[in-house]
UniProtKB/TrEMBL annotation, chain A:
Record GO biological process: amino acid transport
Record-level Gene Ontology MF annotations: transmembrane transporter activity
Protein name: Amino acid ABC transporter permease
Source organism of the structure: Rahnella contaminans
Chief location of this protein within or outside the cell: membrane
Membrane-crossing residue ranges in chain numbering: 20-47, 59-81, 215-236
Length: 253, 230
């Protein structure tokens, strides 16, 4: 087969505009979803550590439902069923154009698609993140809790200053993986007609039949975004304290 | 909000097995067919890749890991798009949609199968391999008769976890209009328009039942394993 890729058909004019806008939309919706997921995880962990059986049962039910159903079905539910059940005045308001609700690059964020995608991604990812944080908490040795209690720490300080920092450090890699997954899964929002990167790339195919070039550019952009975000999370994430020199241990003896 | 479940009653068999009578399975049945066949393919591919990485190490291993991280780095939709585009070029004819999605899912999942299998193989004591080789077995005999049978019980829960992901991932066939459960539900929703909540709650429940029962089996097999060790 003799076939020459034509990159100009993708990297100029209208297709380029689509790709840029799609890339930015993917970036913004991932950030919005991540913020929502993070807030939810804080709430879920607080509920799970509470004394109330009802609260712990609610968290277990939430995690079970959101982990055992496909994200795409959840997105379809939020978009077609839940959004449609909102009061009509809300829907008119969200469906309206708002000059102030625009991210740089002319990406409107107060649209039904953006709101449903960010919401759906946030809830889905929270159900996975909470288990990663829990695994991190479980990995902290029991002696840490006992030592803190014997030193007179309150439950709150114990959790916030002793357990969580260690848990997050231990589980940072899988936590990063979940945030990266959120970014990749935002591609599913194309199923509710949300014009993020995947949607825009497939639009090129019907525009000028440059499917190969479009998919290649899309693939590279997702890979690059994943590497950059993953790198940033590793650099700015919690780190294990440096190993202490052996001599220090012998000092007191 | 008032629910009207008659929409489910009217479309129940269509959502369960699609147009099976016309020889075109759909709905839950197609979801299961795709998940299981992709699972079998992914298992074979993943174990084969793990075996290569285990046997040769070095560059082979590095290349396989690079390949796996490439697959993990892109969204599953893109794997499906690529295959929709490439398979007809390679095979010189049109490939049925469900088959394309099955191959895409298997390809995507095989990377994860490789990682878990390799971890399972390498968690076994080195002496097992050495004893096998010393007894005159070939590497493939060691792998098939000594290592894999021992690693299998440890690997089963992680394989079941991957199968759960596969069941959920078949929903992506919606994007390319292959008539499995999610697509079929989307069709019904487009046709009747006014009962999205009933339809998508039902679809969610179907997936939930499938995945939760698999998760239950996986949990049991972990417990049995722990009981054996104790």
């Amino acid at each position: 087969m003799i076939w020459h890729p034509d990159w100009a058909g993708v990297l100029t004019g209208q297709p380029l505009q689509w790709i840029i806008s799609g890339f930015l939309t993917t970036l913004y919706v991932s950030m919005a979803g991540s913020v929502l997921a993070t807030l939810l995880v804080v709430l879920l962990i607080a509920l799970r550590l509470s004394q109330s059986r009802l609260a712990r049962g609610a968290v277990a039910a939430f995690v079970s439902v959101f982990r055992n159903t496909p994200l795409l079905v959840q997105l379809l539910f939020w978009y077609f069923a839940a959004y449609g059940a909102l009061p009509q005045s809300w829907r008119f308001y969200i469906g309206d154009t708002h000059a102030w609700a625009v991210f740089p690059g002319n990406i409107a964020w107060l649209t039904p698609e953006f709101v449903c995608a960010a919401w759906g991604l946030g809830l889905f990812t929270a159900a996975f993140l909470v288990e990663e944080v829990q695994a991190g908490l479980n990995s902290v040795p029991k002696g840490q809790t006992e030592a803190a209690i014997s030193q007179g720490f309150s439950r709150k300080t114990l959790l916030l200053s002793i357990l969580l920092p260690q848990a997050l450090t231990n589980a940072w890699q899988p936590i990063t993986g979940q945030y990266l997954n959120l970014m990749k899964l935002s591609s599913l929002a194309t199923g509710i007609g949300f014009s993020e990167l995947t949607y825009q790339v497939s639009q090129i195919e019907s525009y000028n039949a440059h499917a190969f070039e479009g998919f290649a550019v899309g693939t590279l952009l997702y890979l690059a975004l994943g590497m950059i975000l993953g790198g940033l999370m590793t650099v700015f994430g919690p780190k294990r304290p440096q190993q202490r020199p052996q001599a220090e241990v012998n000092d007191g003896i | 909000m008032e629910f009207d479940w008659s929409v489910l009653h009217d479309n129940f068999t269509y959502m369960l097995w699609g147009r099976l009578a016309d020889g075109e399975p759909g709905g839950v049945l197609l979801t299961l067919i795709m998940a299981v066949s992709a699972g079998v393919l992914a298992l074979v591919l993943g174990v084969a890749m793990a075996a290569l990485a285990w046997r040769f190490g070095g560059w082979t291993r590095k290349l396989l890991f690079l390949w796996a991280s490439f697959i993990r780095g892109i969204p599953l939709i893109f794997v499906i798009f690529w295959l929709y585009f490439l398979l007809p070029v390679v095979f010189g004819g049109s490939i049925p949609g469900p088959l394309t999605v099955i191959i895409a899912l298997a390809w995507f999942t095989s990377a994860a199968v490789m990682h878990s299998t390799l971890a399972g193989l390498e968690s076994l004591p080195r002496g097992q391999t050495e004893a096998g080789i010393a007894s005159g077995m070939s590497y493939s005999q060691v792998l098939l008769n000594v290592l894999l049978p021992q690693a299998w019980p440890n690997l089963l829960p992680s394989y079941l976890g991957l199968l759960i992901s596969l069941v959920k991932d078949t929903s992506l066939a919606f994007i390319v209009n292959v008539p499995e459960l999610t697509t079929v539900a989307g069709q019904v929703n487009n046709r009747v328009q006014i009962y999205p909540a009933e339809i998508f709650l039902f679809v969610g429940l179907m997936y939930y039942l499938l995945c939760a029962s698999l998760a239950y089996v996986a949990g049991k097999s972990i417990k049995r394993r722990q009981a054996l060790r104790a």
